[in-house]
Amino acid sequence: MIRKGSGVFLLLLPFCFSSACKKQKDAAPEEPRQIMSHFAMDQSDLNTKIWHLIADRAILSEEKNQAYLTNPHMLFYKNNRPDTKVKSKTGVVQTETHDVVLSSDVVAVSLSDNNQLYTSQLFYSAAKHQFLTQKKVKVVRPSGTTYGQGLKASEDLSQIKIFHQQSFVKSSPGKQ
Predict the structure, then answer these.
(1) How is residue 21 annotated by DSSP?
(2) Domains and CATH numbers, the chain
(3) Radius of gyration of the chain from Cα atoms?
């Protein structure tokens, strides 16, 4: 016993299978890339070290001139001596400009004055030698802690401008 309307279904059935069996257009070819373990990169100017970057892993995209980083650590130099260290869970470095974006639990520490910066994303401009972010920040200094939204700082963290800030000053023992 055949129900009414089942003829339409039987007529459309071959078309459903034929469209499922058609070859799909070839997907765009995958861009050339390299995957590297223990990636390292340096930036210097006239034999003066600016920074050294290491990462557990890097995926190099030749078309975009970028390296996608896993667990990057950067060391910035002042007068050829280590001055600031920065780490995060992920990052991207522009291989032509040396600009870097660090993301996920970013921590920057000045080795000379122990200023500490915490944020979720930090952009380093190689041309300006500055750190920038629009994300929430926490800056810990020996004199107190400052919270804000957005930041511009020198690479040695000696000059830090925090936007939309809220500060907490440590009181000295015995002083109220």
Answers:
(1) H
(2) 33-169 (2.60.450.10)
(3) 26
